[in-house]
Write a structure and sequence with these properties.
Helix 3 runs antiparallel to helix 4, helix 7 runs antiparallel to helix 8 and helix 8 runs antiparallel to helix 10. By secondary structure, this protein is an alpha+beta fold. The chain is elongated. The N and C termini lie far apart (89 Å). The chain has 3 domains: 80 residues, Double Stranded RNA Binding Domain, CATH 3.30.160; 114 residues, DNA polymerase, domain 1 (Orthogonal Bundle); 171 residues, Intergrase catalytic core (hpI Integrase, Chain A), CATH 1.10.443.10. The strands form 3 sheets. Strands 1-2-3-4 form a 4-stranded antiparallel beta sheet, covered by helices on one side. Strand 2 and strand 3 form a beta hairpin.
Length: 389
């Protein structure tokens, strides 16, 4: 028996019970509403009868982030999406957020290699797998789940040093974590594991105006001062970051074998993009890399700590801050600021954006977005040369 549940007043009149009240959407397809208590927002369900004659149900959720008068229409829309989904052979198997993340990491490993997959899993392990969100089935995922996850992610502190001191996480770092989760959920959607991105489309949108670390530019003299104040095993690492537009993590992962002394070429393979590329070094900078590679085995880190281990974010963060403080540089100085400064110099120096993007391991769109304004001065100078006197 079907019941009227399409208006707020009709739902308010329903008696609380465990069983759903069903409303016919089309032949064999029903939208359900369950009201367990008088003050609960109620939950929405979809149900249809498959080819074997078996009733198959699907939880839509509370939709309590919408006004009450909009919930029926939204529930009906999501129910129709699900009916279409299963009717076209879409999966009705339960898959959790954690499952979706793992499956996406496997996909990335096939497409981009183990390093890219490992980086994803490491991020998921820190911020998703340890969270309550991980165990929620995608078909039951709601906007409220994502909203609360985002709040926890923003509030999670990170350690500054071994003393236990913490700080607030940077917005651009939070954006990268949300982007990784959003990519996994979108992949599950594309593969038919879920019918809609309604739960996460808004909640996982990036924080606006993040990425302030790109605003800090260190000129040549400041970079020299940073090198002069750095501890001995950090000197060549900072010099390397000051000479090529690599991400700190990519430079840290280079081995001696990645530097071809005879040709003066760097081969970068373990970077964010997961794609190999090469950089031909000018004679003026080859010496730094020759010094770093001296007397090292091919598999040894090209830039190593005093104990012989490769640098990593936790290892270089404190020493770079100490060197910056000793050099009188802004407190926002980071290893990444050196990459930004080098890219800024390349763009301002007139190198075409495609080449800058290629050697930096990023896209032309990203270079234009963050450094395109530097081209204005170059264009102005070029136009000045056209003056007739």
């Amino acid at each position: 028996m079907t019941v009227k549940i399409d208006t707020v007043s009709a739902r308010d009149k329903l008696k609380p019970r465990r069983e759903q009240y069903w409303h016919k959407i089309s032949k064999g397809c029903f939208l359900g509403y369950r009201k367990m208590t008088t003050d609960s927002p109620g939950t929405w369900w979809a149900r249809y009868r498959n080819d074997d004659g078996k009733q198959v149900g699907h939880s839509i959720g509370e939709l309590d982030d919408l006004p009450q008068n909009e919930r029926f229409d939204k529930a009906a829309e999501l129910a129709r999406d699900w009916f279409k989904h299963v009717g076209m052979g879409g999966s009705n198997d339960a898959i959790t957020v954690k499952d979706a993340c793992k499956q996406y990491a496997e996909k990335i490993e096939q497409e981009k290699g183990g390093k890219a997959s490992s980086d994803l899993l490491s991020r998921y392990d820190r911020w998703v797998f340890a969270d309550n969100l991980a165990t929620i089935e995608l078909t039951k995922l709601s906007r409220d789940h994502i909203k609360k996850f985002r709040t926890r992610l923003l509030a999670a502190p990170v350690k500054v040093d071994k003393s236990g001191k913490t700080r607030k996480r940077a917005s651009d770092t939070v954006n990268r974590d949300m982007t990784a989760l959003r990519a996994a959920l979108n992949s599950a959607l594309a593969e038919g594991k879920v019918t809609t991105d309604f739960a996460w489309k808004e909640g996982l949108k990036p924080i606006k105006n993040a990425g302030n670390r790109r605003d800090l530019y260190l000129d040549i003299d400041q970079r020299r001062n940073l090198v002069s104040c750095a501890r001995d095993d950090l000197v060549n690492f900072i010099r390397g970051l000051s000479l090529v537009p690599l991400r700190p993590g990519a430079l840290a992962q280079l081995t001696t074998a990645d530097f071809d002394k005879r040709l003066g070429v760097l081969r970068i393979g373990k970077d964010k993009t997961g794609q190999y590329r090469t950089i031909k070094l000018p004679m003026q900078t080859v010496g730094v890399f020759e010094e770093a590679a001296k007397d090292k085995l091919p598999a040894a880190p090209l830039f190593a700590q005093a104990n012989g281990a490769a640098w990593n974010k936790d290892a270089w963060k404190g020493p770079v801050k100490d060197a910056a403080k000793a050099a009188g540089l802004p407190k926002e100085t980071t290893a990444y600021a050196l990459r930004h400064s080098v890219i800024s110099d390349l763009v301002h120096g007139g190198l075409d954006l495609l080449t800058v993007a290629q050697i930096s391991g990023t896209s032309v769109a990203m270079i234009e977005k963050h450094y395109g304004h530097l081209r204005h001065e170059i264009a102005s100078s070029a136009l000045a040369k056209l003056a007739l006197g």
